[in-house]
Amino acid sequence: MCEIGGMLRVAREESGRGIREWARELNIKSDHLRALEECRFEDLPEAVLAKGYLRRYAEALGLDPEPLVAQYPVRPTFTPPDVVTPPPRRRRAGLVWILLAAAVLVGLAAWGLLRVTAPPAQGAAIELEAPPPPPPPPEDATLSVTTDPEGAVVWLDGFRLGEAPVSGRFSAGERTLRVEAEGYVTYEAPVSLEPGGQRNLKVSLQRLPAAETPEPSGPPKLLLRFSERAWVRVTTPEGAKLYEGIPKVGSELEFPLPAVVRTGNAAGVHALLGGEDLGPLGGEGLVVERRFDPPAP
């Protein structure tokens, strides 16, 4: 096994998770991850996509992706097996056969020359050579994507192509197209690329509905909104633990007042008190502890 596949496999086994779990989390086909671990680079798509898969997989496993990407081969190499040439037969009869075959070839060449130079007989049919077979169709296809609004981020099979409009040649087959823009609903759909074909797609994104702030009812409470991954612990002023953990990004947690909040990534935790957004608890990666009391009547 090559060094790339060995390091990926060992890191994944240490994570305690299978290839299918990582495939779902990274939105990459499990066959592609398995091909990376087994160094079957010929089973992967074009190098630019395959290196993107390798980089994302290595980062997710906690590895430095740069040395692994640098080792990725431009084209998979194949070493043919050794060819064993049998020893020549040392028999005089072999020389006789060689001379006989040479005489036959000379005779055939002379006969063919006479057929070419001699004029065709009157009324005889002239044989025409069959045209060469057409070349095989190319395996790549051209894909161009424009978006509304302009500048949306375009992804193909989990690999970031850039901001729209984008255009390029990619391996033919069934692919997955995803388009994202802040404030818009993410678009994701399969796209079929025919060998040698060209697809021009325009994706119009729908705006997200405006969030409605609910009217406060009853005693005001503390609402924590998580925009980034962050550990948080919430207790009462007396020290009774109300919550401790790492909530999902985008989730919200509500607590009665008064409450003491401690977090390991203050920039990823936003506080709302009585419907008023107080902003993040602090800067990126800062450990912050803050107490929240009910507003004065």
Task: Outline the structure in words.
- The chain starts with a helix and ends in a 5-residue tail after the last strand.
- Helix 4 runs antiparallel to helix 5.
- The radius of gyration is 34 Å and the shape is elongated.
- The chain is about 25% helix and about 30% strand.
- The protein has about 300 residues and is of the alpha+beta class.
- A hairpin with a 2-residue loop joins strand 2 (about 155) and strand 3 (about 160-165).
- The protein is built from 6 helices and 15 strands.
- The strands form 4 sheets. The chain has a 4-stranded antiparallel sheet.
- Among the domains are: about 5-70, lambda repressor-like DNA-binding domains (434 Repressor (Amino-terminal Domain)), CATH 1.10.260; about 140-205, Sandwich (Immunoglobulin-like); about 220-290.
- Mean pLDDT is about 85; it is low at about 75-90.
